[in-house]
Design brief:
5 domains
Length: 731
């Protein structure tokens, strides 16, 4: 039965009348169920009822009896308490109701007789305040002393032991020995005496003429301004390039995310497991190190970041393949070193290096078994500054996933929970890379979107276990920007390619520097709007920049090169022929699904064999490209004007003409002749001469010539009859 008793009025400190002048107020609360119940902020209106729903909006059913089943709830309208089945424990539910007021009995009004031998009364509020203040002070003293490096280890150890005992006493003080008030007073005195004695020991320098607590707190507060340092307690990462710091780094990341602090990596931490970044966070090293050129991986000197060892855990993280049914294969599972699963994450000044045996010069020595250095799980505004991803990752140095959708769940984290989908529910816009360096991976940068099926607009999702509308990648990957970066392909230290070129760039599965391919819900149906500024793309591998489903990529002042020095070999040992279009696929490749490629000031010659003639491709002011006739298709502008001197229009060769079109129709074509495809009219009547007395036309070929009289009233036709005589007739 319902637990509402209309004749019993609970005690209110604040109660509304429910009238027009003093109405009940609508309230919405999100509360997590604990021990099968929640307590609402206010007493709910029985007439308006309490509506409860899951996080997905699905409503629960209110009942008035018992027992309570899964998906049901019962409301006590006298106390504001809502009861549930145990199945709802730890679930966050939404509560909507009308608030009639609230009960507010102060803790200072509840009195306890704390001793059977006297009449001393203590309020609950006094007990709570003393407990919180003293316990926090003791705990803070312990933590700060641990972090203080200004005193000897022996002093810290002794103090820690003393404080630990006192903290334990506080936690068990209730009802033991003396009254609670006396015990807490005694504890407060002991802590104060202890910290004062340590801080005032003889022989310490003048700047230590304070209590240890004050000194440690000052030092710790200063350090916290810079963020969570993974080397400091309680994380104690070694950052020595030898010790496995995986668990220490994970703990530090969790703390930094919860406290809203930066994460500092002051050295090289070995990791053997994946690191997840699930909230906005700034991660900073102290520099990337040094190394560049063909032997950069062999001789690289890393000074901060992560040295990736062992074998990474492979999990399915993407939805790139099209799946019509559960029988269709899923994407291949990937192992990733750093997994970005939040918007607005920032990485600065460190290197991710995949460990390998630098003494082994064999062609298949790729080192530790990991697929991806930095994986970005369809997240927006990921900023990287001075980040290096080096080593022979099997798939990509950077992998930008663009396959999520608004109607699909996020994948699960390592702990089994689902990655957050609160703010950005689909896209990957606004990712930026500044002064980043990639070398060794199959692809330096891989932007991987969904592969669609033109004849089927539905997609089977493994997590949902059902078919839904195929919105994968719809949000897109706009505004991806690289500035002053250096991206390379595998370029293995042995001199061997990772894979041989197949000869067909459209179907080849070999790697290179950068690969962009993805669908999106826009006019072009592709990812679009990416900008690459002063960025180097170079590799001995078959590809440099590979574009498939991609619209409006812009390359400004970039350097793209085949790196065609001799001696490079295919996996079978044969030499790579860098002059063969079947073994080296030029600087940029595109497909018929690519469009609006703009290149300006690129320092290399674009091979148009890899740019379909059907797409819009523009190369403005090429640097080092003498083949000017094939660098752009149509230059669109409202007018052209010379800044000084003549305006020159020039064809490439003396045998080539200059063609003027009006729409699709040619109106003038200049070769050895001035070919006119329309009428010639002067700008005004009787205002234009053809030739002059000094520069006469040699011959005029015409069927007939018509003259108009000076007064404009008569026309005379000059023609030649069949006998060759000139005949004049008025017309």
């Amino acid at each position: 039965m319902a637990t509402y008793y209309p004749n019993i009025d609970p005690t209110y400190l604040f109660k509304r009348q429910g009238t027009a002048n003093d109405p009940f107020i609508p309230l919405v609360q999100n509360i997590t169920v604990k021990t099968q119940k929640v307590t609402l902020k206010e007493i709910p209106s029985y007439i308006d009822k309490v509506k409860v729903s899951f996080s997905n909006g699905f409503p629960l059913t209110e009942i008035t009896g018992s027992p309570i089943s899964d998906g049901q709830y019962r409301v006590d309208y006298s106390t504001g308490m809502v009861h549930f089945n145990s199945a709802e424990d730890d679930k966050e539910l939404k509560f909507e109701y009308s608030g009639t007021g609230h009960v507010n009995i102060g803790a200072n009004r509840i009195l306890l007789n704390t001793s059977a031998t006297n009449n001393e009364e203590v309020s609950v509020q006094e007990i709570i305040d003393d407990q919180i203040e003293l316990y926090a002070k003791a705990q803070e003293s312990k933590e700060l002393i641990e972090n203080n490096q200004a005193v000897s280890k022996s002093e810290i150890d002794a103090t820690n032991e003393k404080l630990s005992q006192q903290i334990d006493e506080v936690s068990t003080a209730r009802g033991v020995e003396d009254t609670l008030a006396n015990r807490l007073d005694k504890f407060d005195f002991e802590v104060s005496a202890n910290t004062d004695n340590i801080g005032n020991r003889d022989g310490l320098p003048p700047w230590l003429d304070k209590s240890l607590y004050e000194i440690a707190k000052m030092q710790n507060d200063t350090m916290l301004q810079y963020g969570v340092n993974v080397k400091m307690p309680p994380y104690n990462a070694k950052c020595d390039g030898i010790t496995d710091d995986t668990e220490a780094i994970r703990a530090a990341i969790k703390d930094a995310e919860e406290k809203g602090l930066n994460l500092i990596i002051p050295g090289v931490s070995v990791i053997t497991g994946e690191l997840e970044f699930k909230k906005p966070l700034v991660v900073s090293g102290v520099g990337t190190g040094a190394g560049y050129g063909d032997e950069s991986l062999l001789n690289y000197n890393q000074i901060s970041g992560f040295l990736v060892k062992g074998t990474g855990q492979r999990r399915i993280r993407t939805r790139r393949k099209f799946r019509a049914t559960a029988m269709d294969s899923q994407d291949n599972p990937l192992s990733v070193a750093l997994n970005v699963q939040s918007d607005n994450v920032v990485f600065r000044d460190f290197t991710v290096f995949l460990d390998f045996d630098k003494t082994d010069m064999s062609a298949r020595n790729y080192g530790a078994d990991w697929d991806v250095g930095i994986f970005v799980g369809c997240r927006t505004h990921f900023l990287q500054e001075n980040i290096n991803v080096l080593g022979y990752f099997r798939e990509a140095g950077w992998y930008y996933d663009v396959t999520h959708a608004t109607n699909l769940p996020r994948f699960n984290a390592l702990d089994g929970t689902t990655y957050d989908n609160t703010n950005n529910v689909s896209g990957g816009d606004g990712c930026t890379m500044i002064k980043c360096f990639a070398r060794g991976a199959k692809w330096g940068v891989f932007v991987a979107g969904a592969i669609k099926n033109d004849s089927n607009t539905n997609y089977y999702d493994e997590l949902l276990q059902k078919t839904v509308s195929d919105y994968r990648g719809s949000f897109g990957f706009s505004d991806f920007t690289t500035i002053s970066c250096s991206f390379y392909g595998t370029d293995h230290h042995s001199g061997y390619r990772r894979d041989s070129a197949s000869g067909n760039y459209l179907t080849d599965t070999s790697g290179g520097v950068m690969f962009i391919d993805g669908a999106a819900a826009n006019g072009s149906s592709t990812v679009q709007g990416m900008r690459f500024i002063s960025t180097r793309f170079a590799s001995y591998e078959p590809f440099r920049v590979r574009l498939d489903r991609c619209n409006r990529p812009i390359f400004i002042g970039c350097h793209v090169e085949n790196r065609s020095s001799g001696g490079r070999r295919n996996p079978d040992g044969s030499l790579v022929d860098f002059n063969s279009d079947s073994q080296i696929y030029g600087l940029i490749t595109a497909t018929t699904k690519t469009n609006n490629v703009l290149v300006q000031g690129i320092s290399g010659k674009i091979n148009m064999a890899f740019i379909p003639s059907s797409i819009s491709y523009h190369n403005y002011s090429p640097a080092g490209d003498s083949d000017g006739t094939r660098t752009t298709d149509i230059l669109r502008a409202s007018r052209f004007q010379s800044l000084s001197g003549d305006l020159e229009l020039r064809s490439n060769l003396s045998t080539d003409g200059i063609r003027f079109r009006r729409g699709p129709d040619t109106v003038l074509y200049v070769t050895d002749y001035f070919n006119i495809y329309s009428h010639i009219l002067p700008g005004g009547d009787g205002t234009i001469d053809i030739g002059n007395s000094n520069r006469r036309m040699r011959r005029i070929y015409s069927n007939e010539i018509v003259f108009k009289s000076p007064d404009g009233t008569k026309n005379f036709k000059l023609s030649v009859d069949n006998n060759g005589n000139i005949v004049t007739n008025q017309v």
